[in-house]
Design brief:
The complex is a heterotrimer.
Chain A lengths: L15 E10 L2 E11 L4 E5 L6 H9 L6 E6 L2 E2 L10 E4 L11 H5 L1 H5 L4 H14 L15 H13 L5 E5 L7 H18 L2 E6 L2 H7 L2 E6 L2 E6 L1 H6 L4 H6 L4 E11 L2 E6 L2 E6 L9 E6 L4 E3 L4 E12 L4 E7 L2 E7 L9 E6 L5 E4 L7
Parallel strand pairs in A: 3-8, 3-9, 6-7, 7-8
Antiparallel strand pairs in A: 1-2, 1-4, 4-5, 9-10, 11-12, 11-14, 12-13, 14-20, 15-19, 16-17, 16-19, 17-18
Helix pairs in contact in A: 4-5
Chain B lengths: L1 H26 L16 H8 L1 H34 L5 H13 L2 H15 L5 H24 L6 H7 L4 H30 L2 H6 L6 H11 L3 H27 L2
Chain C lengths: L1 H32 L3 E3 L2 E3 L5 H8 L1 H34 L5 H9 L6 H12 L4 H9 L13 H25 L3 H9 L4 H30 L2 H6 L7 H9 L5 H28 L1 H7 L3
Antiparallel strand pairs in C: 1-2
Helix pairs in contact in C: 1-12, 2-12, 3-7, 3-9, 7-9, 8-9, 11-12
Classes of the chains: A alpha+beta, B mainly alpha, C mainly alpha.
């Protein structure tokens, strides 16, 4: 399996390793056997739509859900029989879950006071943690007096004060508005670098995943569709599902006519097209040709498809044009004055920059 | 249409308060007869009610029942409310049904069942049996009050505490207990009120020492006097004061 | 997780234990007693179904059980009609003082059975407040005897006693009724009555049923109100049970009547539930609509 070659820990082994990890709820599978590893000091994202099992995996790592089958190891020690309160892992909850009966400082110092540390030590470390998230001024406030973004920072400070080996973040930005979300993304990434801590972040937002991650794990229906660096996932999607979920590619489905090394030929409704392909494809298999909107040009050179313009969406600097060609609808970017709706135009693309991924949309991949 | 609705709701509330209002008016009326026209203002009836030593002893016995009942119903109610609101488990509906069954069993039937069991095991009727029976009936109310406080909390606070290293006991002691404190206070007050005004079970299961509610009942079967008006008013005021205070406490919890 | 399970057991076990030992077990013993019979002044413990035969053959007991069911249904219906607009008002028209309105509704409940009944006797008695007020103002020249100690009086006080439960059940249903549904109905051209009949009523039926169920059960179990307000009409199946355990000393027969009543109630509730679940509305609610 692929593995990130980012900073390795002192042991040279990954921080967290999951093998054939499964979770059933009364017979219903939520996670169907996933394998992945997380390197030391990396920012990893579990990305997928709601109900894909990503939060369940996070909760198994946190110790809030029992593991149904498979192994889960942190620093080569099994986590399976370790209760949540004994794991060197802390969580930032989606709802923040701040204790409403404690002040900001008491919330942040909660884990230290459980350990029975003396008051002066707790105070110093709480101040340090709050400074990390720029919330020093709020230490005497109650959680209900804080805005969503401020509660988020307190939850972060509370989770990092104990210096966990792994910080879990469960959709931490989903309750914030768009502007705040952008700012927090930068801060999260920055915080992870400054702390040198490993972050595992769950989200359904692909933009967020791209902005933050060293490594992305794309999930769908309880299985991992693909994992890799953000660039890998975008340029070389393993399946039609990933291509569509990440950045919305145009997909032309068809059967594989043949495979030659890193190239494959696919029979689409516009004829046979040869393009670079994902590994493991075989002749006769259903696959999809992925064309990103920016890879298609109007009246350029290369392979051509003609179709009728059905919609034009003005997007400021450029326009997004939808073209009906055969049974397909293709989206194309256009920086000039867009063509009229109803007019017939010629679309061109370079097959060498296209990509063939396994499966087709609307069927299990 | 809106005004019609307002008027109608006002009428229903008036209906709910009419009897209490009437009792209040006649507890201050200077006449033996509880009838119109009113004949003047007096506090004699309150003096009479408060000087009746028999009734005061009854009040003492009421406390003897109501205080332990309030404590037991609140403790059990807290356990049940925590289980219902803060944990996932199969058969939650069965557990909920079990909680409300005693409240819905006709009280006389519950009372005669206790009577049979006590005679079978050779126990005399006593206040302990009253306390147990009342605790059962009041339990759904305390569960409701405490659960209404717990249900408003973030469902992840216990997980957050465990995540930060708290053991089961520490979660209870440092998170759950402080968070439901107001609910506990409100529930115990309401349990106290319900217990001290409960008649049927008390009558049936209690032995010789007679709580206030039974004395009042035997009195007003035979003679309706304005002194009873005054006594009823005192009970109402006492109960309402406790309920209002406990509601205020419950609402304050955020 | 394991520690979670332990904590849950610790919380659930005492409650289950107390209810089992002090409610379910005594009811089971009561059930056993219903098969015994009385010889002279002793209770003979040879099981037979004689008591149930007696209950089934006795017109009086059959009538008393039917009367209990009838009273329960009537009061539930009356409380439903009276409470419906009140619940709507609290849920949809009151904004700031919602909890005050609800608490104010419940306060009469906390005055205790006895004080409530006492107050109604003062209001309704032949020489009571209502009669003397009407005489004094000259509306009537003779006191209305039928005010107290009548079926009407019993129904009034029973409704008074249990109306808050009905309003609570309905209020919950109205709270969960999305205002946007009403706006959507109006937007689609439904008038006031069409909205009530086709949107509000169906969506609040579960609340109506829950409230009605509570009132029904509590009315059947009410011993004091018919006794102290109903006069000669105040004989109920519950008071019959009470008498058999008191002066009449026939515990086994009393147990059999008690269990016949419980069985009737449970059967009716199950039947109503089944009937409701077979309607279109019931199916849509069960399937999570």
């Amino acid at each position: 399996m692929p593995s990130a070659t980012i900073n390795e820990g002192p042991s040279g082994k990954p921080l967290l390793v999951a093998r054939a990890l499964k979770k059933f709820y009364g017979g219903e599978p939520a996670v169907r056997g996933v394998d992945f590893s997380i390197e030391h000091n990396s920012y990893v994202t579990l990305l997928g739509p709601s109900g894909c099992g990503k939060t369940t995996i996070l909760r198994m790592i946190g110790g809030f859900e029992a593991v149904s089958a498979g192994t889960l190891e942190l620093d080569q020690r099994s986590l399976v029989d370790v209760s949540a309160n004994r794991r060197p892992v802390n969580t930032v909850f989606q709802s923040y879950a701040l204790f409403p009966h404690l002040t900001v400082a008491e919330n942040v110092g909660f884990s230290l006071s459980l350990k029975g540390l003396d008051r002066a030590t707790i105070q110093t470390r709480v101040a340090g943690a709050l400074a990390m998230v720029r919330m020093e001024a709020m230490s005497g406030r109650w959680p209900r007096q804080l805005s969503g973004g401020q509660q988020q920072r307190v939850a972060l400070a509370r989770a990092i004060i104990n210096e966990p080996k792994l910080l879990l973040l469960d959709e931490p930005l989903s309750a914030l508005d768009r502007k705040m979300r952008k700012d927090m993304q930068i801060e999260l990434k920055d915080l992870q670098r400054r702390l040198g801590m490993t972050f595992l972040h769950v989200t359904h937002d692909q933009e967020e995943a791209f902005a933050l991650s060293d490594w992305i794990i794309v999930m769908n229906r309880g299985v991992i569709e693909q994992q890799g660096s953000p660039e890998d996932i975008y340029r070389r999607p393993a399946s039609a599902y990933v291509a569509d979920f990440i950045g919305g590619a145009n997909l032309l489905s068809g059967k594989i006519a043949g495979v030659k090394g890193e190239l494959a030929a696919i029979d689409t409704e516009f004829g046979t097209i040869e393009a670079p392909c994902t590994s493991g494809l075989n002749a006769g298999q259903v696959a999809s040709l992925c064309l990103r909107p920016e890879q298609i040009s109007l009246n350029g050179n290369g392979r051509a498809i003609s179709g009728a313009v059905s919609h034009v969406v003005f997007q400021g600097a450029e326009s997004l044009i939808e073209v009906e060609a055969g049974k397909s609808r293709l989206q194309v970017r256009c920086e000039r004055t867009p063509p009229e709706v109803g007019s017939t135009i010629k679309l061109t693309f370079d097959p060498q920059r296209a990509w063939i991924a396994a499966g087709a949309m609307g069927q299990g991949s | 249409m809106e005004r019609l609705l307002k008027g109608y709701v006002g009428l229903v509330y008036a209906f709910m308060y009419l009897p209490i209002l009437v009792v209040a008016v006649f507890s201050f009326n200077a006449s033996d007869m509880i009838a119109f026209p009113l004949s003047g203002f007096t506090l004699d009836w309150y003096a009479k009610a408060l000087s009746d030593t028999r009734l005061l002893t009854g009040f003492g016995t009421s406390l003897l029942v109501a205080v332990p009942t309030a404590i037991a119903a609140t403790a059990l109610g807290a356990a049940a409310a925590l289980a219902l609101t803060r944990y996932r488990f199969k058969r939650k509906y069965l557990f909920l049904a079990l909680l409300v069954v005693p409240f819905f069993i006709p009280r006389i039937i519950l009372a005669v069942s206790h009577l049979i069991v006590m005679s079978e095991v050779g126990l005399e009727r006593n206040l302990v049996t009253v306390i147990i029976a009342q605790t059962l009936i009041i339990l759904p109310f305390t569960v409701m009050v405490i659960a209404s406080v717990l249900i408003r909390l973030d469902s992840r606070v216990e997980e957050a505490a465990a995540d930060l290293g708290a053991t089961g006991w520490q979660i209870f002691r440092r998170v759950q207990l402080p968070l439901m404190r107001n609910g506990l206070i409100a529930a115990s007050f309401i349990a106290f009120v319900l217990s001290s005004s409960e008649y049927v079970l008390t009558n049936f299961v209690s032995g010789r020492s007679q709580p206030l509610s039974i004395l009042v009942a035997s009195d007003f079967r035979f003679n309706l006097s304005p002194a009873l008006d005054a006594l009823a008013m005192l009970i109402v005021l006492f109960n309402v004061a406790i309920v209002v205070v406990s509601e205020a406490v419950r609402m304050r919890s955020k | 997780m394991e520690s979670q399970k332990a904590a849950l057991t610790l919380l659930v076990a005492p409650v289950v234990g107390v209810v089992a030992v002090f409610c379910l077990a005594p009811l089971a013993v009561l059930f056993c007693y219903s098969f015994f019979h009385v010889e002279f002044v002793e209770i003979a413990k040879q099981p037979s179904i004689g008591n149930y035969v007696k209950v089934a053959e006795s017109e009086t007991y059959r009538w008393l059980i039917a009367k209990a069911v009838g009273t329960g249904l009537s009061v539930a219906a009356i409380a439903g009609v009276i409470g419906y607009p009140v619940a709507f008002f609290i849920a949809k028209r009151v904004v700031l003082l919602k909890s005050v309105f609800l608490t104010a509704l419940l306060i009469p409940l906390y005055t205790g059975d006895l004080v409530r009944i006492f107050a109604w006797r003062v209001v309704l008695g032949a020489e009571g407040v209502l009669n003397s007020f009407l005489l004094w103002t000259g509306v009537i020249s003779e006191p209305i005897q039928a005010l107290l100690f009548s079926t009407t009086a019993t129904l009034i006080v029973l409704t008074y006693n249990y109306l808050p439960f009905m309003v609570l059940g309905l209020w919950l249903a109205f709270e969960s009724l999305d205002d946007r549904l009403l706006e959507a109905a109006a937007d689609l051209g439904a008038g006031r009555w069409a909205t009530i009949r086709r949107v509000i009523l169906p969506r609040t039926t579960p609340g109506l049923l829950a409230g009605g169920l509570m009132v029904f059960i509590l009315v059947i179990g009410d011993y004091l109100t018919p006794q102290l307000i109903g006069g000669s009409s105040g004989v109920t199946v519950i008071s019959a049970v009470n008498d058999l355990f008191g002066t009449a000393f026939d515990w086994p027969l009393g147990s059999a009547i008690a269990w016949s009543l419980l069985a009737t109630m449970v059967a009716l509730i199950i039947a109503a539930g089944l009937l409701f679940s077979r309607t279109r509305l019931g199916r849509s609610i069960i399937s999570g609509g």
